[in-house]
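Quick one:
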Amino acid sequence: MKPDFESSENKEDTVTGDVIGDTAYSERFVLKLLLKFANLDTLKDEMKEKSFEEDLCTLWDMTAERDVVLFLQKHDVLNLFCFAWPIIDSPRIVEVLIGIIGNMCCQKEAAEALLKLNNFLPMLLEYAKSEDSLTIIQLLRLINSGFFLAEENITIWIDMFIKVGYSNALYFILKNSSNKELLVTALENFNTICSYCNTGINRTKFFGHFVCSEAITSLAAAFTEIAVKQKNCCDRDELERVLIISLQITLNLVGFDKSYEVLSDNKSDVVNIISIVFSYYENKFVNQKEIDMDLVDIIDSASTIVRVLQIGELCDYEQYCLQSYSMWKTLSSIARFDQNGGSSFENDDKEELQAFSKKMKTSLSVLIFNYLDNCSDENLLKALDLINSNYEDILDLVNDKSLVNAVSNRAANYRTRLKETVNC
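Output:
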């Protein structure tokens, strides 16, 4: 809702002399509202008025405009909010103000100004420990906005996280909430932090603050809540986003020399995540005949996670090897596209389809061999029974010679017996 101009007869004067930048918003409206934050003696009474909340919500909408944010910056609004914050005790007002700041942080000038307020930002981050889910959601969005424009200021963010114990608060949210919007926002926040903090000079601090057993436990809890318990409440894009970023977060957590040592007790949680992801995409690819260009990255990420954590040793072959081979066989049918003169997959670009098929088939072959390298003897036999005559074709697509040798040695007795049986 936009604030009304004060009178119709003065409308022309207002439009030409009382607008913010190229918007239709009133400078006077904003300044009158900001003045209320400057007077602490009356601010508490103002917060009790419904009109005050409504005006703040209007300002929240207005901050989607860059010119409005620059106008607020001109009047040092972040310092003004910081000044008034100690007496603001209404959860709704806190939520709206954090939402306003989050919108402002979509502009670089405001994001940088916030980082210079050494006392204000830690105070805001403490709301990650709040019991009000709406407030937490706005804080998580604020952080995400701040990171997108942070550039050289990433170190400041991660130092603030360490100062307030942010990772513990984030993991508590992921592990204990059943609010779908909050969990999805928290997963996006975790993924954003991984993307920006797990780089360059900040990797050591990221590892020290975020990589721990609780990280995987909490991630798995949030993932299961959304992808299993509340699956039917998600639209497809939202669900797939959760599946993908959960793998991305796991991949970031296992990317350190000490990751296995720290996360070795979390293998079952990781297996659960990978199994659910692969079951979903097997159904989408094999049964629904839909090609998803993210699949190669998903498989490669899973392959790295499987290798680092050596999770194949405790996996039944049905937990992701079966799905991998199911997709591999379907890809073989795509490879026969020319011979059959058609395909059940909808794709007008035959060359693109063939290139995708080749990449995905290679990635799946590596993942299957990583499983064969680490699984139990019992599951090795079951997996080899499953693969059977396609074993050599899968082997030919694996370029890692040490992996090929390791699996070939494990499979040697089985393959010999299989040949003897065939020759009988």
